[in-house]
Design goal:
By secondary structure, the chain is of the alpha/beta class. It is 41% helix and 12% strand. The protein contains 15 helices and 13 strands. The strands form three sheets. An eight-stranded parallel β-barrel has the order 1-2-3-5-7-8-9-10, surrounded by four helices. Strand 9, helix 6 and strand 10 form a beta-alpha-beta unit. Helix 3 runs parallel beside helix 4, helix 4 crosses helix 5 and helix 12 packs across helix 15.
Length: 477
């Protein structure tokens, strides 16, 4: 298989915090690692009605270094003083089309544009507003169901971006429910039937069925026909300790999620798109929290895997990990420890008891722990149901197992030969062990106090953090 697939780097800033400062924004580093492209504006900063002289200069600089540049925005992004926003109004589509033309005229060096719909972020620019594709249900758009709206997006983008202006366009098929277009083969096929066949038009989907959690099947839309597609990978998973704990994703990306019974049947080594355009790789960032890891080591590990598997999806993940360890002059014994990290993540983050009770695909384990927050409503729901079902001791034993596993991993980490990253490596395992023991005791307290209201659960969680702080974690308001 020829290695002509694109590798797009995208730093996913949090909507609630300042722009992440990272050397993954350095185009020279990206080029050296093997990236071919980079996204320079996203749904937070946007590009429609917002091309600044600073962005123009950055596009020119990065393009001259040989990387393809992409700009991204949400649909619909419109002037704040406009009454447009209804999909049933031609003004909405005309304004969007003209805004796209203006962007391409302002920065003709770009390789292409990226658009999303399904969720929208408010812009910090008071001169523009963002309106969701499905927000309006007025009489003017009453005849346009969700399929018709999505199809019109494809027609507009393919026509204006690709045919009229000769640029590439990526439509990120992401929405907020497990029944949305992202993972629904039938819906996605119906919508993509409006694609006119321009090879410069692409779609992009996450490799997971819903979001970047474990207990996620490989995206079932991966192999449907239509435009060539990108596969999206997140290297510091927001729901799995955002880079503070080692989380080796190579086996899942290569051979599929073992916890879903797919190991060896899905993953890049077994299930690829008919036309695979490349990978959309998020080295760091994602979610709603600030970034807390003071080293990108665990992100670097997964970036290496994503790039290697894009170049050759049949490579053995253990071989890729070994290659990364050697290149970074890390102890060879670290490999065995890192290869056990996926199981540690499963034990720390997810609850087998709840999996048996609810078998959730969307938001596994009720998202009791999100980014850098404990979620009191979810914790109360779990504690109450487990006690009601008389299986509280199973949850207690499960958390005890997580603590024992984390302590064992820490002991192994402390025995590794000294290297440049020794402090960070040991610190990561110390934090994981603290988290495991902290949550073991906390779940015992919650179960002892069940049934709980959300407010009561929040008070108990706050009291635990006051008694035994676990920075940077807090309790969600």
């Amino acid at each position: 298989m020829p290695d002509n697939r694109m590798r797009i780097a995208y730093i996913h800033d949090s909507p609630l915090f300042e722009r992440l400062e990272t050397d993954y924004r350095d185009p020279l580093k990206l080029r050296e690692l093997g990236f071919t492209d980079v996204v320079l504006s996203d749904q937070m900063s946007g590009c429609l009605f917002g091309v600044t002289p600073k962005l123009v200069s950055e596009v020119e600089t990065v393009s001259e270094l040989g990387l393809g540049v992409w700009l991204m925005d949400d649909l619909f992004t419109l002037p704040a003083d406009s009454i447009a926003g209804c999909p049933g109004s031609e003004e909405t589509w005309e304004l969007t089309g003209q805004a796209i033309r203006d962007v391409i005229e302002s920065v003709p060096q770009i390789r292409g544009l990226v658009f999303r719909y399904g969720e929208t972020f408010e812009s910090s620019d008071s001169a523009i507003k963002r309106v969701g594709l499905f927000d309006c249900q007025c009489i003017d758009c009453s005849s346009m169901d969700e399929i018709a709206r999505r199809r019109k997006v494809i027609e507009l983008l393919e026509s204006v971006v690709c045919r009229e202006n000769g640029k590439r366009c990526i439509l990120r098929l992401w929405d907020l429910t497990s029944k949305g277009i992202h993972a629904n083969r039938i819906l996605q096929s119906k919508v993509l039937s409006k694609w006119g066949g321009d090879p410069r038009f692409f779609v992009s989907v996450k490799h997971t069925m819903t979001d970047y959690w474990r207990h996620q099947p490989w995206n079932p839309t991966m192999t449907i026909s239509g435009p060539a597609r990108f596969i999206e990978f997140q290297c510091e998973r927001e729901y799995e300790f955002i880079g503070m704990v080692p989380n080796w994703l190579g086996p899942e990306w290569s051979q599929g999620p073992i916890e879903c019974g797919e190991r060896g049947r899905t993953g890049l080594g077994n299930t690829l798109p008919e036309e695979w355009a490349g990978s959309w790789i998020i080295p760091i960032g994602g979610g709603w929290s600030n970034r807390h890891a003071d080293n990108s080591l665990w992100a670097d590990m997964n970036v290496h895997a994503a790039l290697a598997l894009t170049a050759n999806p049949n490579r053995d993940s253990s071989e890729i990990l070994h290659e990364w360890i050697v290149e970074n002059q890390l102890p060879s014994d670290l490999q065995l420890l890192l290869e056990k990290s996926p199981e540690l993540i499963l034990r720390l983050r997810y609850l087998d008891v709840w999996k048996v009770l609810k078998n959730q695909t969307w938001m596994p384990s009720e998202n009791w722990f999100r980014d850098d927050n404990f979620v009191p409503g979810a914790c109360a729901k779990i504690a109450n149901a487990v006690v009601e079902q008389n299986i509280a001791d199973l949850l207690r034993s499960e958390r005890a197992l997580a603590s024992a596993m984390a302590r064992n991993h820490l002991l192994e980490a402390e025995k590794l030969p000294v290297c440049e990253h020794t402090d960070f490596i040991i610190g990561s395992y110390q934090w994981a062990s603290h988290f495991a023991e902290w949550t073991e005791k906390t779940w015992d307290i919650l179960l002892n106090h069940a049934p709980l209201s959300r407010a009561q659960c929040k008070d108990l969680l706050v009291a635990r953090l006051d008694e035994d702080p676990l920075p940077p974690l807090s309790v969600m308001d």
